[in-house]
Design brief:
Layout (H helix, E strand, L loop, with lengths): L13 H9 L16 H13 L4 H15 L11 E2 L4 E2 L7 H4 L2 H18 L5 H9 L6 H4 L1 H15 L17 E4 L7 E4 L12 E3 L8 E5 L8 E5 L12 E4 L10 E4 L8 E5 L8 E5 L7 E4 L10 E4 L8 E5 L8 E5 L9 E4 L10 E4 L8 E5 L8 E5 L7 E6 L4 E2 L4 E3 L8 E5 L8 E5 L7 E4 L10 E4 L8 E2 L1
Antiparallel strand pairs: 1-2, 3-4, 3-27, 4-5, 6-7, 7-8, 8-9, 10-11, 11-12, 12-13, 14-15, 15-16, 16-17, 18-19, 19-20, 20-21, 20-22, 23-24, 24-25, 25-26
Helix pairs in contact: 2-3, 2-5, 2-8, 3-5, 3-6, 3-8, 5-6
Length: 481
């Protein structure tokens, strides 16, 4: 049975929401709108825009319009017949009230029109593109909120890029390889296999249509053959808003097979998808975090040829604003839940819920000061003891990397620096056992003008200085693992 997406109405407007949805087509005027945005809404708007291959200006137009119209909330009320994030009117051809109250549908309607407007009017600003779609009586409002819209875009981008770590040994030689998903219209997948001292190949295409824009691309060994496969979560795409499919392309060791649907309803909307072997049977399963006030965690176990029904394994873990991961922290062969609360120094906890094989246990604090604020946390076994550790990258001018090792019942160390110059602002850090010695190493994709890949090998007590392992891989806008 499919579980239903929760209502995205603000809690303060719940009663109005019920009235609006049960008394359609009429809608009540909003007595007020929330002063802050709904984190789930901005993620869905971002995913739809990327799914439709909207350029950065058109993406900004949607965030400007969403902030002006609703402060990026799915409002069940509005002026006259207006509803939803963009305050679209059912009696002006935008869809039924129920459709407009679906943020994926509403965003698809906005961006489909905005893309055409931008193509026909290339000199328009983002605000003018928004006005072209919205036809507001106050056309100047959209460009005036550009700064706020950009900050919301940055927040949404960070959430959609949550990837604390998945294995990438796609050819089964026990060395993690470099993978990039171009997404966009081409949706190619390129692989540069590890030789143990570098990543080989620049344009070696392993799949020519997998994981389009707006989807979440991950990797994991879902059939237990020792080779990591490609997995993509559609989240209910703009082309099919009622679905939330999961597709798999199995690795042959030299390429990925054609994609096959392994699940037809998992990680819908703004949920955060992950991959890991949570029951210890040697096959990676799929996990989704609702990442909202409910904090539910669902699991669908791999059968080797599909994923089973989604089942709730935890009812309060990794709420909105936190950074979740799935990894085996106690070395029992089952992947556990980890979340970084990412608060200030006084509230940057790391919480763990251990897998029993059929559920996740009670949440436990394993560290009380790690991965503060905007730092980028990752998980991996950096000392080779069979237990995953936590790593955080400052990714700023300091470019420091800190590690706290797992003891099996906690993470030890607060300010233990393992590298003092790795990952600058705008770069994408990752962990993987690049040389096959059983210890996860540092990887960074520089993106930008250089598109280099650097590796810092683990010694078990620190990371060596970065060495260039590839000089052109993982372009800006691509998903790199």
């Amino acid at each position: 049975m499919r579980r239903l997406l929760p209502s995205l109405c603000a809690a303060t407007l719940l009663a109005t929401c019920v009235i609006a949805l049960t008394a359609a087509p009429a809608s009540a005027a909003c007595t007020s709108i929330p002063s802050t945005h709904d984190p789930a809404v901005i993620v869905m708007v971002q995913r739809v825009a990327r799914n439709l291959n909207a350029n950065d200006k058109v993406l900004l137009a949607g965030f400007e319009a969403g902030w002006v119209e609703s402060h990026m909330n799915n409002l069940p009320c509005g002026d006259k017949s207006s509803l939803g994030v963009f305050q679209q009117r059912w009696d002006y051809g935008w869809g039924t009230p129920e459709q407009i109250m679906d943020p994926v549908y509403a965003s698809t309607q906005f961006y489909s029109r905005a893309i055409v407007c931008d193509r026909n009017n290339p000199g328009y600003s983002a605000g003018q593109v928004a006005q072209c779609v919205q036809r507001s009586g106050f056309p100047d409002r959209y460009d005036q909120v550009a700064a706020k819209a950009r900050s919301l875009m940055a927040e949404a981008k960070r959430v959609t890029e949550i990837t604390a770590g998945t294995p990438t040994d796609v050819n089964g030689d026990h060395r993690d390889d470099a993978i990039t998903f171009t997404q966009g219209t081409l949706a190619d997948v390129y692989v540069a296999p590890s030789t143990g001292s570098g990543f080989a190949g620049t344009s070696v295409k392993w799949q020519e249509f997998f994981s389009i824009g707006g989807e979440t691309a991950l990797t994991g060994d879902v059939n237990g053959d020792g080779r990591d496969d490609a997995i993509t979560f559609t989240h209910g795409s703009a082309n099919s808003p009622g679905s939330a499919d999961v597709y798999v392309a199995l690795s042959t060791g030299t390429g990925f097979t054609g994609s096959a649907k392994w699940h037809d309803w998992f990680a819908p909307g703004a949920e955060i998808a992950a991959v890991g072997d949570v029951n210890g049977d040697g096959r990676d399963d799929i996990i989704t975090f609702t990442h909202d006030g409910r904090g539910d965690v669902y699991v669908a176990l791999s059968t080797g040829s599909s994923f089973g029904a989604g089942v709730k394994w935890h009812e309060y873990f990794a709420i909105a604003g936190e950074y979740p991961a799935v990894v085996d922290v106690n070395g029992d062969g089952r992947a556990d839940l980890v979340t970084f609360t990412q608060g200030p120094a006084s509230a940057a906890d790391v919480i763990v819920a251990l897998s029993t094989g059929s559920s996740f246990g009670a949440s436990q604090k394993w560290h009380d000061l790690f991965a503060v604020g905007a730092e980028l946390p990752r998980v991996g076994d950096v000392n080779g003891d069979g237990r995953a550790d936590i790593v955080t990258f400052t990714c700023n001018a300091d470019a420091d990397v800190y590690v706290a090792l797992s003891t099996g019942s906690g993470f030890a160390g607060t300010t233990v620096k393992w590298n003092d110059f790795f990952c600058l602002a705008g770069e994408f850090p990752y962990l993987g056992d690049a040389d096959g010695d059983g210890k996860d190493d540092l990887l960074v994709f520089t993106k930008g003008a250089t598109n280099d890949v650097f590796v810092g090998l683990s010694t078990g007590t620190g990371f060596l200085g970065g060495a260039k392992w590839h000089d052109f891989f993982g372009l800006t806008g691509e998903t790199t693992l």
